[in-house]
Design a protein that fits this description.
2 helices, 2 strands, alpha+beta, 52 residues
Length: 52
């Protein structure tokens, strides 16, 4: 089962590093990035993801 993620952090360099790390894993795929919560929630709704 592929886990789809949206990375949320206010620092672009942190998001970039996490994306590189997570994309290297076989069962995880970064499908979006956001710098704040409301932006992330919009992406979760747009991509029909489940948030926890």
């Amino acid at each position: 089962m592929m886990i789809r993620l949206v990375i949320v952090d206010d620092h672009a360099v942190v998001r970039s590093g996490l994306k590189m790390l997570l994309d290297s894993l076989d069962d995880m795929k970064v499908v979006g990035e956001a710098s704040e919560g409301n932006e992330a929630l919009g992406q979760v709704e747009e991509k029909s993801l489940t948030s926890y």
